[in-house]
Amino acid sequence: MVFLIVSFLFTVLSAGDDSEFTIVENSDSQRDTFGRCDICKLLVKSARSSGSTDKDKVKAHLEENVCSKLGIVKKLCSDTATTLIANAWNRLLTDEDPQAVCRSIRLC
Which is nearest to 92 in space by CA: 57, 34, 71, 19? Predict the structure, then answer.
């Protein structure tokens, strides 16, 4: 259920993005990992669009503009944002592919 909600919200929040995603459902752990990957990529894109290079401002932007809109997966989003900022901050400031950024911290 959470997987479907995340997939739907990711689609809605990334409207206009030319990215194409394939939804694969296998085990619960794969669905969770896939959900985290989608959330992570969405957070990378949103962090870059915030226009800030201050960690606290970017974290606040992500909480307000992404995580707060994800309902029952808000905590997962918030935890993912914290992990992303703590472990991939320098990569967030580049134009590196969002999936590569998330893969580097094992969220994809």
Answer: 57
